[in-house]
Amino acid sequence: MKPVGHRGDAAQDGMHRLFFALWPDDTLRAGIDEVARELMQRHDPGGRLLSAARYHMTLQFLGDFNPLPPSLIGDACAAADTLQLPPFDMTLDCAGSFHGSHVWWLGTQHRPPELLRLWDEMGIALARAKVPVKPHGQAFAPHLTILRNVRRFIAPEPVAPLPWRVDAFVLVDSRPGRDYEVVRRWPLLA
């Protein structure tokens, strides 16, 4: 399984970017889009607003692959099948950006312990199944990207709260020039 270094590689037709994510429902997507547009209007950061269909919160990033290894999706799904965690509530209530990045995001000021547990147990299950993951850095920084290619940094600021009942997670296959494909969905069960 060989990850690809850059999305700008010449042979992009076979490129697959795989990740596990939390996937908002349509009502939440509309609320996120409204907050993102309000932030753009108020701060004029330049860049581009993401399509609401692309909103997600990455849990575990598997990497970029070209070609896609035959067993990778099956192994990742088998690892996810072992997770048995309850649903939980989270609120997107702040916006910000990471230093050195050109994205703005929405996040939560109070990370639910269930979110950290889901991230941690998923990482353990993927490691047991020998599915490679790309590290987030030193710690999990849950966020939902709303703008790309912005010209300036934004310090964290509160936004109108958007409640999110997290009752499932998904495996996503992102391919250049195409919509995200949800490969499979796993419900969180009480």
UniProtKB/TrEMBL annotation:
The gene is thpR. The active site is at H56 (proton donor), H143 (proton acceptor). The keyword Hydrolase applies. A motif (HXTX 2) lies at residues 143-146. This is RNA 2',3'-cyclic phosphodiesterase. The keyword Hydrolase applies. It catalyses: a 3'-end 2',3'-cyclophospho-ribonucleotide-RNA + H2O = a 3'-end 2'-phospho-ribonucleotide-RNA + H(+). Keywords: Hydrolase. Its EC number is 3.1.4.58. Belongs to the 2H phosphoesterase superfamily. ThpR family. A motif (HXTX 1) lies at residues 56-59. InterPro entries: Cyclic_Pdiesterase, RNA_CPDase. Gene3D superfamilies: Cyclic phosphodiesterase. It comes from the Bacteria. Hydrolyzes RNA 2',3'-cyclic phosphodiester to an RNA 2'-phosphomonoester.
